[in-house]
Amino acid sequence: MAVTDGRRRAAPTGWRRTLAVAALATTAAGCGVPLDNGPTALPRRGVPFGLLTPGTPTTSTSSQPPPVAVSVQVFLLAPGGHVAAVSRDVPVPAPLAAVLGALVDGPTNTEAAAGLSTAIPAQTQVISATVTGGTATVDLGGTFGQLVGPAQIDAVAQIVFTATALPGVTGVAFELSGQPVDVPTASGADVSTADRAQFASMAP
Question: Per 3-state DSSP, what percentage of the chain is helix, strand, and coil (rounded to 5)?
Answer without folding.
Answer: 30, 25, 45
